[in-house]
Design a protein that fits this description.
By secondary structure, the chain is of the alpha+beta class. The protein is built from 15 helices and 13 strands. The protein is 42% helix and 18% strand. Helix 9 packs across helix 10.
């Protein structure tokens, strides 16, 4: 064949080949949160926190320290308990830089490992199959090997796991990592991403200057310690088939679909949060009094755009999939986004999972979005029981919300909620839709739109035989009761029993 004939054959081939579908015609795979986990430090009451701060400032020789002002600030924080990872005798004690780094190695890593293990256990899969590890913290330090490497060893993950470590993004770290995981899962349905966020923010109180100002007192009175985690993954399936696919791999059923996410830098607000180190090793965090007001003004447009992004994602998912998916979305099926995405003017039935930035921040967010305190129930409970947990608070609130969703179907009353370590009972059951919101230096906003896929139960035909259910149900109850002995005070006991029973009924 001559060159001219070859060229003609090629052009005819291209002319008859079907055009490649545009990217918009190929919707991403669904991304799910399969499990969550959280870990906290020792809980001190507000009077105990006051006494510790005053004692350590006296020992440090800070004769100008305003003890009355510090007491008033701690009272107004709205925290009944404060989560401190350090031993009680070290709370608010001024640490050297080496002592700070050592505390980071011990106590921050410990919380991160506990939260991650809880998420992995609830997920049910093999830790060696985690493909990505996303770690983030605001508790920075020049210290290698880095914490993400330590987590791989402590958790028994595969040495080839793809790691990402983020520092310095502040109180939005958890949801930023969750959005990164969403993007990976939407592109690769076989990916399983472990997201871990941890902060030893009470270390601000261990790094105050020799003479603490009122601004220092405000900062160290707000921030406390925690770690949180989630397992995120994709699926080749939509609807109930996503649950079946997960079960075949030994995983739990998906809990939330990550419908959309959004990040934003709010213009002209860089001066509102200043965080820096000084020559003597002190860490300074200065928060402008107008910060909550600016957050309240920026939130409505931000949430409106997040919801619009969710609506667009829904429309793309409603059409036939072009990637050879094993099933197409069906109206009302578990795990699809076929129900209507709420609007900014109709958030009454939406749960708002907000960073635990303090009572004023939460009030401004509720006011700006036109919702009631019950919509922010999990945020208020996590804040009240632990304090402002910085970037770790994002997934701590999601974890509380996830457990609460298990219990809300049982008409949990206040006494049962307190017994299970969940704080007070919400005024209404958890919603199908939730908006996650967090803020960080910049000022930056981070949002995620979630849908509780457990709101659509699988068909009863999938329930096992009564004989199988009898044995499995007994085992589930036994395992659930075992949690009472092994996890006292962590707010997981009854929730875990419910999850085991759900698996027994529907898997």
């Amino acid at each position: 064949m001559c060159r001219r004939d070859l060229q003609r054959t090629k052009s005819e081939s291209f002319a008859t080949a079907p055009p490649a579908p545009p990217n918009d015609a190929r919707p991403p795979h669904p991304a799910y949160v399969y499990s969550t986990g959280s870990a906290y430090g020792n809980r001190l009451t507000t009077p105990q926190a006051k006494a510790a701060m005053i004692r350590q400032r006296r020992l440090a020789g800070d004769v100008a320290f305003d003890e009355a002002f510090a007491s008033r600030v701690l009272d107004k924080c709205g925290f009944e308990h404060h989560s401190f990872a350090l031993p009680r005798e070290d709370v608010f004690r001024r640490l050297t830089r080496e002592e700070y780094l050592e505390a980071r190695r011990i106590y921050l890593v410990d919380m991160a490992v506990r939260a991650a293990r809880q998420a992995l256990e609830r997920w049910g899969g093999d830790g060696g199959e985690i493909t990505h590890l996303f770690w983030g913290t605001m508790t920075g330090g020049m210290d290698s090997p880095t914490i993400d490497i330590k987590l791989v060893g402590e958790l028994g993950l595969n040495g080839d796991v793809e790691r990402t470590s983020i520092e310095g993004m502040g109180c939005l770290t958890g949801f930023r990592l969750l959005n990164l995981a969403r993007q990976v899962a939407q592109g690769d349905p076989s990916a399983r991403i472990l997201v871990v966020s941890g902060d030893l923010r009470s270390a601000l109180g261990n790094s105050m200057p020799q003479e603490a100002t009122r601004e220092d007192v405000v900062a160290v009175s707000l921030f406390r310690d925690a770690a949180s985690a989630a397992v995120v993954g994709g699926s080749d399936y939509d609807g109930g088939a996503a649950v079946d696919g997960a079960i075949e791999r030994g995983e739990c059923a998906p809990r939330f679909e990550l419908v959309a996410g959004l990040s934003r830098i709010v213009e002209g607000t860089g001066h509102l949060v200043q965080y820096f180190e000084t020559n003597d090793g002190a860490i300074r965090l200065l928060l402008d009094r107008e910060l909550p007001d600016h957050i309240g003004k920026a939130e409505p447009d931000f949430v409106r755009d997040l919801l619009e992004k969710g609506r667009k994602a829904t429309k793309r998912r409603e059409g036939p999939r072009s990637r050879g998916s094993r099933s197409s979305p069906q109206a009302g099926a578990l795990g699809t986004t076929s129900s209507t995405v709420p609007t900014i003017d109709d958030l009454d039935g939406v749960d708002v999972l907000c960073h635990t930035g303090g009572p004023r921040v939460l009030r401004e967010v509720a006011k700006a979005l036109g919702v009631q305190s019950q919509n922010l129930h999990s945020s208020l409970e996590v804040m009240r029981n632990n304090g402002n947990l910085s970037g770790a608070s994002n997934l701590c609130v999601l974890d509380h919300h996830s457990q609460l969703a298990d219990l809300s179907d049982l008409n949990m009353d206040a006494e049962a909620a307190a017994l299970m370590g969940m704080g007070s009972a919400p005024a209404r059951p958890t919603s199908e839709w939730a908006v996650g919101l967090s803020m960080g230096p910049g000022v930056c906003l981070e949002g995620v739109l979630l849908r509780d896929v457990r709101r659509k139960a699988p068909p009863m035909s999938r329930v096992r035989s009564m004989e199988d259910f009898s044995s499995v149900g007994r085992e589930a109850i036994t395992r659930g009761l075992g949690e009472i002995d092994t996890r006292k005070g962590e707010g997981t006991l009854f929730s875990r029993a419910c999850v085991f029973l759900w698996d027994a009924l529907y898997t």
